[in-house]
Write a structure and sequence with these properties.
The chain has 5 helices and 4 strands, in the order αββββαααα. The chain is mainly alpha-helical and 150 residues long.
């Protein structure tokens, strides 16, 4: 989301243009609305529960998937976000992925710049430099915008 002399970068302008258009049609489901690795309980490599339902609502499943992917991008990098998407699609074959939700999530969570979320340390993630977070998000948003039309 780098800018030059206070102007939005071309990718950011395109991302904003995308989310200002109508979202893709999708079935409304029960959403967690803050779905990310710290809200998932594990026991012996199996999910045993999901906590922190205070923001739950109805909407497209892509919202939860995108929120988790944006967290994973920042915490661990794109390969983990892609692994999560593949696992989600395998577990929920009716889910139809659309990058619109990822773009919306990035702008929602990381505008004007991504910040280290201190509870990630409880997950075993050491402090991540601002530059690393920014690079991960910039690369991710560039990829999403570039592949949006495909």
């Amino acid at each position: 989301m780098k800018s030059h002399r206070g102007l939005l970068c071309h990718t950011c302008e395109k991302a904003i243009e995308i989310i200002l258009n109508a979202p893709p049609k999708s079935k409304s489901v029960f959403l967690h609305r803050d779905y990310h690795p710290l809200n998932i309980l594990w026991q012996q490599s199996k999910i045993t529960g999901v906590v922190d339902w205070t923001n739950s609502c109805q909407g497209p499943a892509g919202v939860d998937v995108a929120h988790c992917r944006t967290n994973l991008i920042q915490m661990l990098g794109s390969e983990h976000a892609d692994q999560f998407l593949k696992a989600y699609q395998a577990a929920s074959p009716s889910f139809i992925y659309h990058p619109y939700w990822d773009i919306s999530s990035v702008l929602d969570m990381c505008w004007p710049k991504p910040e280290f979320y201190k509870p990630w340390q409880d997950f075993g993630i050491s402090m991540i430099e601002d530059k690393t977070l920014q690079t991960r998000i910039d690369d991710y948003l560039n990829y999403l915008v570039k592949h949006y039309e495909e």
